[in-house]
Structure formats: C-alpha cells, structure tokens
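Need tokens for this chain, all 113 residues.
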Amino acid sequence: MKPHEDSARGLAQLEGYLLWNAEIEEARRQARRLTGQLPWLTTAQREDVERVYLMERMAGCRESLTRITGRAAELRGEYTERYVRLRARCVAASVVAVSAVGGACTALTVLTR
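Here are the structure tokens for all 113 residues:
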C-alpha cells in the first residue's frame, strides 16, 4: 500500500473512532437526562437504567452502521459499474467521431484532387 493510502486509511480510522466516542458521550448525556426525569430512582437504579439505555443505544448504532456500510458498498459497486459503462460509451463515441472526421477529411481530399 502506498504511504498516502496508509495515511488516508489511518485518518478515516481516527475519524471513525472520534465519531463513535462522540456518539457514546451523547448517549450517556441522554441517559442522564432520562434518569434525571425519574427522581424516585435510587442511585443504583439510576446507574442500571443509564447502563441499559447506553447498551441499547450502542447496539442500535452498530446495527445502523452495519446497514449503512452494506448499502455504501452496494452503491459503490453500482456507481463503479455505471462509470465503466459510461466510459466505454464515451470512448466509443470518441472513436466514431474521430473516424467520421477522418473519413470526411479523406473524402474532401479525394474530391478536391
């Protein structure tokens, strides 16, 4: 792998790590906000509710990320396929255009002699 590819991959991993940690912190804030609305909970109950909320939220996030990753891979494949077809059509159109211009020049040369 080339150095710039390694750097890009490392930066993507770092970004993913930071985003995941931000998601965890947001889930913790929401869990605290939820338990703050339940003043009758004991400290142990509050901690249990926050822990369960956090675990459920992280499980949901993982499922969403897995679906998104799969869909992104599907789209990448579809767009790559479309790009290959479009490139082939453009090359074919260019060949036809160059051939037509070449034929026209040849015809003009023959006619003007």
